[in-house]
Amino acid sequence: MTDKDDQPRLSKRLSELGLCSRREAEEWIVNGWVRVDGAVVDILGSRVSRAARIEIDRRAREQQSELVTVILNKPICYVSGQAEDGYEPATVLIRLENRWGGDDSGRSFDPKHLLGLAPAGRLDIDSTGLMVYTQDGRIAKQLIGGNDVEKEYLVRVQGVLSDDGLARLRHGLVLDGVKLKPARVAWQNEDQLRFGLREGRKRQIRRMCEIVGLRVTGLKRIRTGRVMLGALPIGQWRYLRTDEGF
């Protein structure tokens, strides 16, 4: 281990410990909300020992508790992130009039909840279903960083799938020169498959299906980790409840 690995920047260390995002960490440091071995460290770029005791001021915790995460049922023809090729970002749907009437989070809508709301993952423009948008860097890191959170999809297909093809979907395919992680794949009904993936390569499911002779005609994400899309109507959104986690 190099000296820099053994003495990471404080902002990086806070992120590594899952306390906040790097951007949040920098704000906390500047505000004097971080103590290292009992002493306030308020200089950006400061390095700390991995064995150091790190304490966070309650003001940082209070600020963090105000951050929101939103679940959206994305329609087709909307992009997950920034506008591209004339298509609008799905975030334009996150407004008060599109909030689901069944939202039982207990949160009141505040326009500041739209500030810094970023996609934690993506869905193709021609796919629908569960999208996560968050102000919380911890959630973004959890869902994007390691890709270990399983996502579940219902995939409508055309074509004939052999037993060998189903086995290959589950384990044995290669995309972009990389062997894919094992996947959970089973028939949902006669023309629809259910996929469970722990990675998210570009258009992965569509490309997997093409390899085994299937054409995808519809794709919907119904779960991310432990959070279900449930009865959330297409084009509507709700807040993540405090008792939910991915």
Task: Explain the overall architecture.
The protein is an alpha+beta fold. It has 3 domains: 3-63, Structural Genomics Hypothetical 15.5 Kd Protein In mrcA-pckA Intergenic Region, Chain A (Roll); 69-147 and 227-239, Alpha-Beta Plaits (2-Layer Sandwich), CATH 3.30.70.580; 151-224, Alpha-Beta Plaits. 22% of the residues lie in helices and 25% in strands. It has 7 helices and 14 strands. It has helices spanning 3-6, 10-16, 22-30, 58-65, 137-145, 163-170, 204-211, and strands at residues 34-36, 39-40, 54-56, 69-74, 118-119, 128-134, 151-158, 174-175, 178-179, 184-189, 192-197, 215-224, 227-228, 237-239. The strands form 3 sheets. Strands 4, 5, 6, 7, 10, 11, 12, 13 and 14 form a 9-stranded mixed sheet that branches. Strands 2-1-3 form a 3-stranded antiparallel sheet. Strands 8-9 form a two-stranded antiparallel sheet. Strand 12 (215-224) and strand 13 (227-228) form a beta hairpin. Helix 2 (10-16) packs across helix 3 (22-30). It starts with a helix and ends in a 7-residue tail after the last strand. The mean pLDDT is 92.
